[in-house]
Target: Signal peptidase I
Amino acid sequence: MANQLTKEERQKRRNRRKHNQNEKAKSWLREWADALLFAAVAALIIRTFFFEAYRIPTPSMEKTLMTGDFLIVSKMNYGPRTPMVLGIPFTNIYLPGLVLPWTRIPGFEDIERNDIVVFNYPIDITPIAAKTNYIKRAVGMPGDTLSIDDKQLFVNGNQAQPFPGIQQIYNVQVRDRVRLSAAKVEAAGGTLYQSQNGSSGTYRIEMSKQVAETVQGWPEVTNVSPFVLPDGFNEYDRRGFSFSSGFNNHHHLPSTVVPSKGQTVRLTPENYHVYENIIARYEGNSVQRNGEQFVINGEQTNEYTIQQDYYFMMGDNRDNSEDSRFWGFVPQSHVVGKAGMIYFSWDSERWLPRFNRLLNFIHD
Model:
């Protein structure tokens, strides 16, 4: 009998040990699950209200920001937005048809001219927060008067401030029977394209003003001048938006005023295309045309008061950037944050990190 009891006790001990091990395993799993849940919630809060990572996918901001740069974008500077849609965190999946009431929490600064800003691409047909993120330089503030003439940007009548990273395409003429070295151009900081027409001795090079001045001093080069589209080259016919029927990205309708909150504009059949997205899409009004008259929310009127501030954005790679010149103004509601720091940079051509760009703060 004693031996039988001993066996039962041993079995009970084994069962207790197994139970304790299971409890420890469950406790360990709960701790990890709690830790992962806490980390996910903390990351979601940080991403929503404080900082977000962003990758530069295109060359539209070169050489200020390079394709393959990974940025930290601060949402605190201009003020974070409360959630706008209901979806799966850290994905682009959201519940269609449901837009949450939202507001912008005050930041500690306003957008200033020439800030590098991340924003939602305005003309995407999705809720604001689900739109593609773009990054450009805010060259026009609410109320500014802008013009572009022969590729030169003017703000309130003055030529815009230049920046070392801004680049454009130049025509470069070389001496007879001389070929320009692509490797030499690349070493100087430019990108060489093919000659304009065979052996004409004229090349097109994408480069900054500083590089253009260097190239101008080369003995084989006779002249360097900005490449400018002719006045007759019209991009209006192949785009859904334009500031004027004679617009291209090198010439601009003179005296274009960036809309500001509280500004009242007079609508005409000639200028309505400039304000159509603002009135109907970004500010949610119902608009109908009745000859030269406009009917806004059932009321016949030829005036409209702007409900929020807008910005004019341009890429620093002026000849290789889809920006406000082509799709119009950026509403304040679409502003995501301010570009803060490059935390990593990857050169896909050389398949190497750009070590000289790591942990660099972005200066406007």
